[in-house]
Specification:
Elements (H helix, E strand, L loop, with lengths): L2 H14 L5 H4 L7 E5 L14 H12 L7 E7 L4 H18 L3 E10 L1 H6 L4 E4 L4 E3 L11 H6 L24 H26 L7 H4 L4 E3 H6 L5 E2 L2 H9 L14 H11 L10 H16 L4
Parallel strand pairs: 1-2, 2-3, 3-4, 3-5, 4-7
Antiparallel strand pairs: 5-6
């Protein structure tokens, strides 16, 4: 654009400024907000958990908001999939670097495990004094049904190629060697998690590593003492104090998930959700999600 064109554009913009919305004028600070709430990577009967696939476009839209001063993450998650947690973490960092925008994470009830990993993508972490923060560890769980099927007279027949292909099959008795292999995998994931927290929090961390990375979680007040978060506060007051009383905080909503669209479609067509294949798996996922929240008294 030539200099004369630029001057004309600026003059036109100045004339139109009184009738433009605050978001288009550029003289009002804007901090787009992305809400990250729920289990990470888990599918429940009515909702897909937080995944990069479900959040990619939302995050991209947030970082592309014109005249944005920063991007706020509103986090309320007990964790879930370590892979999806890390993928979301990486995408936030990539977008922050690409658009040269600071990121501020606000933890609500819980920012633990994978939820805390995502919070570490922010340049600052702010939480309530009673928020649950931490749980820097790895957990895995399953069910054992071999005694049940034996009791009701069911015989498990499993055919594999590969010595460990049926490792931790819930319908077979647990093998010590399988548990040992699983714990080795968890150790690798835990070490990666620790390295990520150390890289992002650095010298802010206070206290012995044995305590910080034990999988324990703390209230926000104690988490601040340990250097896991930066401040005690909440989003509205914090953003107003930093960017002014007129700061705009548009919520960048995620698109409705395909699962919900399918469920609503089944209802509108008179379909019976109980006839859906995979309902048992959805119910188990919901119970596991409930167990994750219950760890934090929620």
């Amino acid at each position: 654009m030539a200099k004369s064109d630029t001057t004309w554009f600026d003059q036109t913009l100045e004339l139109m400024r009184p009738v433009l919305s605050a978001r288009l004028r550029g003289d009002v600070p804007i901090v787009p907000v992305v809400r990250l709430a729920g289990i990470i990577g888990t599918i429940t009967p009515l909702r897909t958990g937080l995944t990069l696939g479900g959040l990619a476009r939302t995050l991209d839209r947030a970082f592309k908001v014109r005249h944005a001063r920063a991007v706020a993450l509103l986090i309320n998650s007990p964790g879930g999939s370590p892979v999806q947690s890390h993928l979301i973490f990486r995408r936030i960092r990539e977008l922050a670097a690409e658009h040269e925008l600071p990121v501020i994470a606000f933890v609500e009830d819980v920012g633990a495990s994978g939820g805390y990993m995502i919070a570490c993508a922010a340049d600052e972490i702010i939480c309530d004094m009673s928020s649950m923060v931490g749980s820097i560890g790895v957990v895995g769980g399953s069910f054992g049904f071999h005694k049940l099927i034996e009791k009701i007279g069911v015989e498990r027949r499993l055919y594999t190629s590969g010595e460990h292909k049926a490792m931790l099959d819930p319908f077979l008795p647990e093998k010590p060697d399988d548990v040992k292999r699983l714990k080795a995998i968890q150790k690798d994931i835990h070490e990666n998690f620790i390295a990520l927290v150390q890289e992002r929090r650095g010298a802010k961390l206070q206290g012995p590593e044995k305590t910080l990375f034990s999988g324990e979680f703390w209230t926000g007040a104690r988490a601040r003492e340990l250097g896991l978060v930066d401040e005690i506060g909440e989003m509205r007051m914090t953003l107003r104090s930093r960017f002014g009383e007129k700061v705009l905080t548009p919520l960048i909503n995620a698109e409705r998930s395909p699962l919900i669209r399918r469920l609503l479609g089944a209802e509108s067509r008179g379909g019976d959700l109980l006839d859906r294949p995979g309902l048992a798996e959805d119910v188990l996922s919901a119970l596991e999600a409930r167990a994750l929240w219950a760890r934090f008294g929620l």
